[in-house]
Design brief:
6 helices; alpha+beta; 202 residues; five-stranded mixed beta sheet; 27% helix
Length: 202
């Protein structure tokens, strides 16, 4: 007989001495029979802990949903980071422009890269060969800005338009310059770009 099979119930204080003792009967098998499967397995000793990180993450439906949700959130962050608008990129007259700048040996170097015109645009928009032959120029006005937001220097630089990628470059003494801005005018269309100055060791 199990220890809990028959437990006499304690009489209430002041109860009738002649009253009949009540017996509490507990049958674990009957109670467990209607319990969830995980509880039945626990009492039967069949419940073993899942081992391994990946197995735990996909052990049940809830864990799988959470894993999928985290994966999707991570993917959204990566996509947003890579494809969100960047102030150092712009388009003017169909040309993709990219501004970059860095500091080296007490000078700040800045350049605007004008990517080659896309083939589809070259065919449909205008004849690039004409502008190359006529030696049309792209103009960039560089502004060097310090940590206090003051414009240290402003330099206009131009370069002849090329069929392939070409550059407009300049430099300035480094007076704690942290940012370079550029206004680029190419074939009558203007674009504004901004780049933080990258620090390079000697």
């Amino acid at each position: 007989m199990a220890f809990y099979d028959n437990i006499p119930e304690t009489k209430a204080p002041g109860g009738d001495e002649n009253s009949e003792n009540l017996v509490f009967r507990y049958n674990r098998e009957e109670r467990v029979k209607n319990a969830p499967k995980i509880v039945q397995d626990y009492y039967a000793g069949r419940l073993e802990p899942t081992r391994g990180l990946f197995k735990v993450l996909v052990a049940n439906k809830f864990n799988r949903i959470m894993l999928l949700t985290v994966g999707l959130c991570f993917a959204v962050v990566i996509i947003a980071k890579n494809f969100s608008s960047r102030p150092s990129l712009a388009v003017a007259s169909g040309f993709e422009l990219e501004l970059s700048s860095f500091s080296y040996d007490e000078s700040v170097y800045a350049q605007v890269k004008i990517h080659a015109l896309k083939k589809s645009l070259e065919d449909k928009a205008f004849d690039i060969e004409k502008y190359v032959k006529d030696k049309e120029k792209a103009l960039a006005v560089f502004s060097f800005v310090d940590a206090e937001g003051q414009e240290i220097s402003k330099l206009p630089v131009s370069a002849e338009i090329q069929k392939n990628a070409f550059y407009i470059r300049t430099n300035s003494p480094d007076y704690d310059i942290i940012k370079v801005a550029a206004q680029v005018d190419i074939l009558g269309e203007r674009a504004s770009l901004v780049s933080s100055v990258a620090r390079r060791e000697k």
